[in-house]
Structures are given as C-alpha cells and as structure tokens.
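Input structure tokens:
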C-alpha cells in the first residue's frame, strides 16, 4: 500500500481524530456527495449513481481504517516498551529470603553501604610491545554507594592483582619475571588519594568504571596502575571510563561482570604516564571477568568463585 494511505502521517492523524464518514472525503476530496452526479457506464447507455461506486470504496476504506487502527495500537505498545525502564538492584540471599544490599547512608551519622568483594574468573592479561603480564587471582573490595532500583553504584576501595602462576604464589607472571600490579589511588595503594566507582547503566545490562568517587560524574578522574617488573616500574593511565556487561541470573547465583574491549582493539587501552625505555607506550588490558560476593572480611585473600560463599547478584526487572 502506498505512503499516500497508511504511511502518510497526516492521514494517520486524521484516523485518530475523525469519524469514519470524513475519512473518504480526506482520501478523495474531488468526489462529490452520494447520488449527486450520474456517470456513464462503459459499454452501455445505462446510468448509475456514483453513490454505488462510493459504497465499494467505502467498504475498502473501512478495511484501511481497521489496519490503521491496528498500526496505531502497535505504535502505542512500541512507545510503551521503549519508554519502560529496567529497575536494577543488587541483592543477596539470607536463608530463603532475598533483599537489596544497603547503600551508603548520608549522616549524621554517616554509614557506609554493605561490603562486597569481586573475585576474578580466568586469567587477565596486560599486553604491550615486549611485555605480557598474566594475573589469575584478582579481587576488588568496596561498598554499595547507591541501590535505588534505577541503578547500582559501588565504591571500589581496594584491589589486588595476583596469581598462582609463580613460585611465590602472589605476584603476577610476566615474560620478564614476576610482576607486581598496584593501584596507587586506592586505600591499599601507595598514594591512598581516593576511590574508583562502578555503576550499572540504567535500562540495560551494562556497567561503567571510572577513576573517582561515586559522588562524581562518569568519566572524571583517571584510572591508573603501576606494573613493577625486574626491569623497573611502568605507570599507566586512562581517563575514559572502562565499560562492560553484567549477568542477571534467575536462580540467584552470583552475577558476572565482564569487561568489554575498546572498539577495534583486543583489550582496553591504557597509555604510559611514567617509566623507562623498557615500558611499552601503550598497554591493552583484557579478559577481565569478576563474580560478585559479600565481603568476608579477609582483606587481600583470593577465594575461588566456584566455592566462595554468599553470592550477590544484580536483579533487573521491567
């Protein structure tokens, strides 16, 4: 059917507001009222009222109106679906009950939110020209800053990047010897100047991580870390937020957070801020995956997610 009918926005608007009798006049305004003008029938000398022809078209236009009404109804449903927001909360299970984790309470008295821990799954990599670092026992700890049903925000306070790939059992493995990775800004770092923040993005199963407190805007501050190898220290930074996806398990098991690569790259790019000639000018961080649990209070101790107790999970509802 041509745009002059159902595809015409003006016609759709008329369908919504006008009576059926007015519809035919809108489509064929050149036609006159029923029975006003007789017409010559081809192949004969009999004359019939044009009204009979209009009755056929009237029935056809009724069908068009029915289709038009259906399209309008579908449009309303589509708008409703597009405008619906997915409520996201982070929850844990206590006995047979599930409940949202408590967020930070602004005082007085000021109370931090519930403590959580993220344990890595698999091996994460940092790769640059001439340098490859592998860590497979990473963990992050922090507290819930916001959990209002629209989005979840968590303050990352401490981070450890470790492995069981070396004899020491704590440092990460690299192609130039054992490597230590630290984040100076966090509480267990050397500078202790602040925190990182991670949040769920409203209306989808994505997350964003940036190098500042949760009271700041996304993308403010810097994400920095230091790689210390037998060759020396290399400090890397990134201003743009790191992004990823999360799962919303129906069976109340742990949610998994998976980091997404930068567009067109095999990881998330960090640039060299300080270091010697042996430091790659860029490093790609990849294969970062974490499962979420309540914080057991054993600072810096990695627990295999397959056996870790007290999972927490992100719940999304439309």
């Amino acid at each position: 059917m041509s745009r002059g009918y159902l595809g015409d926005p003006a016609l759709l608007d008329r369908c919504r507001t006008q009576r059926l009798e007015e519809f035919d006049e809108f489509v064929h305004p050149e036609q006159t009222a029923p029975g006003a003008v007789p017409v010559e029938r081809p192949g004969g000398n009999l004359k019939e009222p044009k009204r009979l022809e209009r009755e056929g078209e009237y029935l056809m236009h009724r069908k068009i109106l029915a289709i038009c009404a259906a399209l309008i109804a579908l449009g309303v449903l589509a708008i409703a679906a597009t405008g619906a927001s997915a409520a996201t909360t982070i929850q844990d299970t206590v006995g047979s009950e599930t409940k949202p984790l408590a967020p930070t309470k602004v005082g007085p008295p000021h109370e931090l939110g519930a403590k959580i821990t993220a344990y890595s799954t698999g091996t994460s990599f940092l790769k640059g020209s001439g340098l490859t670092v592998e860590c497979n026992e990473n963990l992050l700890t922090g507290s819930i800053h916001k959990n209002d049903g629209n989005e979840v925000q968590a303050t990352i306070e401490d981070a450890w990047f470790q492995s069981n790939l070396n004899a020491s059992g704590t440092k990460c493995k690299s192609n130039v010897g054992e490597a230590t990775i630290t984040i100076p800004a966090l509480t267990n770092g050397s500078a202790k100047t602040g925190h990182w923040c991670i949040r769920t993005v409203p209306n989808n199963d994505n997350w964003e991580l940036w190098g500042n407190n949760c009271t700041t805007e996304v993308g403010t501050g810097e994400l920095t870390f230091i790689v210390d190898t037998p060759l020396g220290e290399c400090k890397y930074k990134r201003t743009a937020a790191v992004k990823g996806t999360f799962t919303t398990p129906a069976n109340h098991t742990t949610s998994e957070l998976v980091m997404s690569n930068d567009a067109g790259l095999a990881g998330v790019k960090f640039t060299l801020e300080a270091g010697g000639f042996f430091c790659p000018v860029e490093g790609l961080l990849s294969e970062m995956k974490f499962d979420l649990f309540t914080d057991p209070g054993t600072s810096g101790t990695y627990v295999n997610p397959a056996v870790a107790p007290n999972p927490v999970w992100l719940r999304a509802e439309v």
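The CA atoms of residues 34 and 51 lie 4 Å apart. The radius of gyration is 32 Å.
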